[in-house]
Amino acid sequence: MRKELPPPVPRLTVITLGVSDIRASIAFYDALGFSRRLKATGEAVAFYDTGGPVLALFHWDQLAADAALPDKPRPTTFRGITLAWNCRAREEVDAVLAFAVGKGAVLLKAAHETDYGGYSGYFADPDGHPWEVVVAPGIEVGEDRRVHLAE
């Protein structure tokens, strides 16, 4: 009789974004200040330390092929996912949005008071991936850059 294995421990380790122009995307994420790691991968794939899960950039068509999905038609509208850059204060939200736009991001939505007591706005990276920049009750950003959630 086989011994039943315990269930795997869930974890989110890497978020991979499909990109059209890897050089432009690398330049954009470098300009935002994310720390690139494993540079030996050259322009095949780029990995960034984000203080939590790793952010990876990979050619759009190759990522689709790797996942056994069609690469066309490529969506030009909302894809059902956003990335978030949590902040410690409202002033930091404003500063991050201005910084990102200054590095080539497109402002999607100006910072505003949210209905849940937070403050947020959105920008898009060069491939249109939306990022929410937010400060929210119950979510704290520690000195370790990691998000700490209230119980």
Name a few traits of the molecule.
4-stranded mixed β-sheet; 2,3-Dihydroxybiphenyl 1,2-Dioxygenase, domain 1; globular; 33% strand; alpha+beta; 151 residues
Question: What's the SSE blueprint?
Answer:
Elements: E1 14-19, H1 22-32, E2 35-37, E3 45-49, E4 54-59, H2 60-66, E5 83-86, H3 90-102, E6 106-113, E7 119-124, E8 130-135, E9 139-141, E10 147-149
Parallel strand pairs: 1-4, 5-8
Antiparallel strand pairs: 2-3, 3-4, 6-7, 7-8, 9-10
Shape: globular
- Look at the structure and give the mean pLDDT: 94
The largest β sheet comes out as: 4 strands, mixed
User: What is the CATH third-level topology name of the largest domain?
Assistant: 2,3-Dihydroxybiphenyl 1,2-Dioxygenase, domain 1
Give the strand order, joined by hyphens, for the main sheet. Answer: 1-4-3-2
Distance between the termini: 41 Å
Give helix % range.
Answer: 10-25%
Summarize the structure.
The chain has 151 residues and is of the alpha+beta class.
